[in-house]
Amino acid sequence: MDRLTPVPALGAGTQTIGSVTIAENSGVALASVAARRGQSDACGKVLKSILGDVPAVGKAILHDPEAGFWMGPDQWMIGAPMASHEDIADQLKASFGDAASITEQSGAWVVFDVTGAKMPDMCEILCNVPIRKMVAGDVQRTMIHQLGCFVIRRAADDHIRILGPRASAGTLHHALVTAAKSVA
Amino acid sequence: MIINHPLLGPRDSAEFTYMGDARLMDRPDPDAPDAAAAFYDYAYLRDNPAGWHRELWFHEAGDRSWLVVTRNTVTHEISAVELASDVARAQGRT
């Protein structure tokens, strides 16, 4: 049988506009973890064993291979490389058991990596996050172009990762390109 | 208007959706003898105060938590913001 490759959300090539580079990242497998009633502590223990710690409010833990961030009270998103963790939801279900509800999220989100010196200027045009105050590992959910997105400040100073709704990948990409052009 | 989210700090009210009077959390008991009257009140009758009002806000473009916001409808001053789940637990609910 042919070796099959997963279809990306958009398939747009990496674009550099001025100093900003916008790249779709189809190599992230995602799953959400929602603690069941009264199971916060049990979930915390499992998160610690996977990520090293429990992501605090508004924070990500940029850990390898699994990384995770806080989405809401008793809810977290876990991400890992698609190549090794395509079945991340099944893997997490095995770890969390009945303590949490796990939902596969790889098919729900498109991931864009935005890098470059003018990334903060571009981010200020796009959304309502205090990008210059955020440090590596800060996460905020916000609206970009009327779409609910997560903005994650990554380890590199000029790098943010944006998770947006996969079905609106084209719209989100258009918003990113337009903002990049206006700061170029 | 800025809503001081108990977990996330000050956030723009544009991220939130107004979900009505905070009394909506107290759904009447459907098995009570006066359930019909209680549900009529619950579903249709609202106070419309000029002044302090406890209301539900949903952080739709944020962490998706429900908040109980105490807001002055005349001045838009906000005196208290609590997680609705904490308010419900304080009433002895799970």
Number of helices of chain B: 2
**Percentage of helical residues of chain B?**
10-25%
The proportion of residues in beta strands of chain A is 25-35%
> Quick one: CATH class of chain B?
Alpha Beta
- Low-confidence segments of chain B, given as residue ranges, are none
CATH topology of the largest domain in chain A: Gyrase A, domain 2
How does the helix and strand content of chain B classify structurally? alpha+beta
Structure description:
The complex is a heterodimer of chains A (184) and B (94). Chain A has 184 residues and is of the alpha+beta class. Chain A folds into 2 domains: 15-26 and 108-183, Gyrase A, domain 2, CATH 3.30.1360.120; 28-104, Alpha-Beta Plaits (2-Layer Sandwich), CATH 3.30.70. Helix content of chain A is 26%, strand content 34%. Chain A has a 6-stranded antiparallel beta sheet, covered by helices on one side. A 5-stranded antiparallel beta sheet of chain A has the order 4-5-6-3-7. In chain A, helix 4 (119-126) crosses helix 5. Chain A is globular. Chain B is of the alpha+beta class and 94 residues long. Chain B has a single domain (2-26, 36-90), classed as Folate-binding fold (2-Layer Sandwich). Chain B is 18% helix and 35% strand. Chain B has helices spanning 35-44, 84-90, and strands spanning 2-5, 9-12, 17-21, 52-58, 66-72, 78-83. Chain B is globular, with a radius of gyration of 14 Å. The mean pLDDT of chain B is 94. At the A-B interface, strand 5 and strand 9 of A face loops of B.
